[in-house]
Automatic annotation (TrEMBL):
<protein>
    <recommendedName>
        <fullName>leucine--tRNA ligase</fullName>
    </recommendedName>
</protein>
<feature type="domain" description="Aminoacyl-tRNA synthetase class Ia">
    <location>
        <begin position="1"/>
        <end position="262"/>
    </location>
</feature>
<comment type="similarity">
    <text>Belongs to the class-I aminoacyl-tRNA synthetase family.</text>
</comment>
Length: 262
């Protein structure tokens, strides 16, 4: 699986994370990024937040002289063999943190129209054994992200979040498809009567359909490749994110990827 690892900057850590980072001398002066693995780099304009699993352990690992990535340990190990470790073939851990301690951090995601910053939020279905365990959220085009953001907006107390972290964040029209208009995920969730992130089976179907429709029939309606088919824009946006230093290539051995049906 060939992912794009999106480098998300920290503008302000949540209190627990702040305490941890401030007390860790190895992290001092380093550029720390949450790294989200995506298959849809062309959707990065529409990022409204980023999800972590509250019970997942993340590690701070040093990828070069200046940069530290926050991912699952499993992703760090894969990255160590892909030129993404200061010690080739080895993970250089500078510490660990629980997802729940990162929730509420204010971050800056490359290309997102929400330039003032977006928040790290909890998602129930983040898989620890896929990607980096950090999932960037594009509710306009990802049904899972749309359903989860809806849950958080409807029941902030239940999910233990501050309503301010979700209140002003709406799905952004970024891709137009003939079947579903310019908010594909919203249209699909409504059509399939998906109420929440707990509707796993329906969400798996909606995701499949959103992928297909977006990739084969989508047109960019925002950004440098506005007017171009998604199929053409996708590799161009990926290359430009990597060239600007805002993303890295990250691939994952097939056998490690948990399949949808597993
Ligand atoms: C942004 C995005 C925008 C994504 C979109 C999808 C869509 P797949 O297809 O099953 O391999 N993801 C990445 N890592 C995880 C994880 N650990 N746990 C749960 N979800 C994860 O899944 C790849 C996609 O699943 C990734 O691409 C990421 O969300 C999420 F408009 O990144 B994506 C129709 C999908 N649209």
């Amino acid at each position: 699986q060939e992912y794009t690892g999106i480098k998300i900057k920290i503008l302000k850590w949540a209190p627990e994370a702040e305490k941890y980072v401030a007390g860790n001398s190895e992290l001092e002066g380093k550029n720390i990024f949450l790294v989200a693995a995506t298959l849809r780099p062309e959707t990065m304009y529409g990022q409204t937040n980023c999800y972590v699993g509250t019970k997942i352990d993340y590690i701070f690992h040093q990828v070069n002289e200046t940069d530290v990535f926050v991912t699952t340990h499993r992703a760090a190990r894969n990255m160590a063999f892909q030129d993404l470790s200061v010690v080739p073939g080895e993970v250089k851990s500078l510490g660990t943190i629980k997802g729940s301690d990162i929730v509420g951090s204010l971050i800056k995601a490359p290309l997102s129209v929400y330039e003032q910053g977006i928040y790290v939020l909890p998602m129930e279905n983040v898989l620890a054994n896929k990607g980096t365990g950090v999932v960037t959220s594009v509710p306009s085009d990802s049904p899972d992200d749309y359903a989860t953001l809806g849950d958080l907006q409807k029941k902030p107390d239940y999910y233990g979040i501050n309503p301010e972290w979700v209140k002003d964040y709406k799905p952004v029209p970024i891709i137009s498809t003939p079947k579903y208009g310019d908010l594909t995920a919203k249209a699909l969730c409504e059509k399939m009567k998906i109420q929440s992130q707990k509707d796993r089976d329906q969400l798996a179907l909606a995701k499949e359909e959103a992928y297909k429709e977006g990739f084969y029939h989508g047109t960019m309606i925002i950004g440098d490749y506005k007017g171009k088919p998604v199929e053409e824009a996708k590799p161009l946006i990926r290359d430009s994110l990597i060239a600007s230093g805002d993303a890295v290539a990250y691939s994952e051995p097939e056998r490690q990827v948990m399949s949808r049906s597993a």
